[in-house]
């Protein structure tokens, strides 16, 4: 066969391959994969590449995507997936068109980290320090953080216990338990109701029962970083400085940030809580926890955390703040 004949046949076969493949995926490393889109999840997509098969690709690596496959897509957090949607990417700008008419135009420029409609997650860590020397002491810390997500609402539980004895006497005895119900809205907004029990026998404000609510919002500014901010009024029933208990209004705000770093599965977290009673001068309480979590095996983790607490009212020893480093073991799910 002549050279020109072989060239014509090669061109013809290339055209047949192009016709057989309607989709193309281009990544930021220069790779081009003919094929079709199979599915999209929170951080990745599955692409059925010609002659290779299914390939999992991080959405942050996608530069362009063209496909004729129609798949279910979640257009917003906590909303049911819409069937038969056509996804496209041009210069990292995501767009989607669904056969079901939309009540509002949607440009999915950030199809990042959309949570599943139903899931649960949590972490429990504990540390125990026992000293049987000249001054016997015991220090016990327990922290639980759990979330149950449903299509329209969410449950949150946070529990923290810190108990310490030295020479047979209690030197630290505090606990903080929270239950929160979130009613989820569009674009990360939510209404919440919250119940809290707080106790610290060595503070002037030594026990509080609080019920409140308000407005909050979840953010995902970049992939693998989630943030939340909320606040609202609170009604508090509290014991203050050995006086008779009182019922007074107040307010509270909370914030959280969690970053799943790209280094060996290490996670960085921070949470803060600021509450105050209107009727007490300097009647505020600020708490924060900042830590690193290191994966060990399966769901087992190690955690290094800095706990900080500051009150406007002096504690029994005259201090207004407390700072503690915690090294613990735990489990995540």
Protein model, in words:
By secondary structure, the protein is mostly beta strands. It folds into 2 domains: 3-98, no CATH class; 119-332, Porin (Beta Barrel), CATH 2.40.160.40. Helix content is 5%, strand content 65%. It has 1 helix and 20 strands. The protein has a 12-stranded antiparallel beta barrel with strand order 9-10-11-12-13-14-15-16-17-18-19-20. Strands 4-3-2-1-5 form a 5-stranded antiparallel β-sheet, with no helix packed on it. The protein has a 3-stranded antiparallel β-sheet with strand order 6-7-8, with no helix packed on it. Strand 2 (32-40) and strand 3 form a beta hairpin. Residues 10-20 and 103-116 have low confidence and may be disordered.
What would a concise description of this structure say?
With 333 residues, the chain is mainly beta. Helix content is 5%, strand content 65%.
